[in-house]
Amino acid sequence: MEGIQQSGVDMSLLKDFLDNEPETFCRAFMSHVPRCDSVESNICETFNGYILEEREDGIIDMLEGIRKKLMVRFVDKNKQIARVQRAFCPRIEKRLMVGVEMAKMCTVNPALNDKFEVVVDRKGFVVDMEEHSCTCGYWGLTGIPCHHVVCIRLVSEIGGGCIC
Ligand SMILES: [Zn+2]
C-alpha cells in the first residue's frame, strides 16, 4: 500500500476498487481453483440459449431433455476429438503457438529448485515449474502454460538463455 501511495494513485479510487469484490471481475484477484479465465457471462448465456426449448417444459421434462441433449452432444464431441491426431486440442494448441511467438521476446534466468526468472521488457516473472505457477497468473488461472513457461521449455531444448 505504501508503494501505491507514493506512486500518486488516488487512494479513494483504490478503496472503491477493493470494496467492490475485485475477485469477481478482475483476473489478478481471481481464484486459480476453477482453472478458468472467463470473466464474462457467455457460458451462462450460451447454455440458456442451448436449453431454450427445454426451459418451457416442467422441471422433470426439462431436466430429462437437457440430459438427452447433453448425451448427444458428448457423443458428438467424443467422435470429433477421436479424429484429432494432435497432442493438444486445437484451441489450446493455438494459444500455445501464440505463446511460442511471444516467448521470442523473453530471456530466461535459471534459479534454484526448478524456478526461473523470465524477463520481458525489463519486467521479471517468477516461474515455478514444480508448482506449475508463474507470477503473471495465467498458468494458474487457465491451466495452460503462459509464454514465460513456453520460453523456459524452448530454452531448455536449445540449451541457451535466450531464443531470439
Ligand atoms: Zn507467466
Automatic annotation (TrEMBL):
It comes from the Eukaryota. One of its GO terms (molecular function) is zinc ion binding. InterPro entries: Znf_PMZ, Znf_SWIM. Keywords: Metal-binding, Zinc, Zinc-finger. It holds the Pfam family SWIM. The keyword Zinc applies. Residues 125-157 form the SWIM-type domain. PANTHER family: MUTATOR TRANSPOSASE MUDRA PROTEIN (PTHR31973:SF187), POLYPROTEIN, PUTATIVE-RELATED (PTHR31973). This is SWIM-type domain-containing protein.
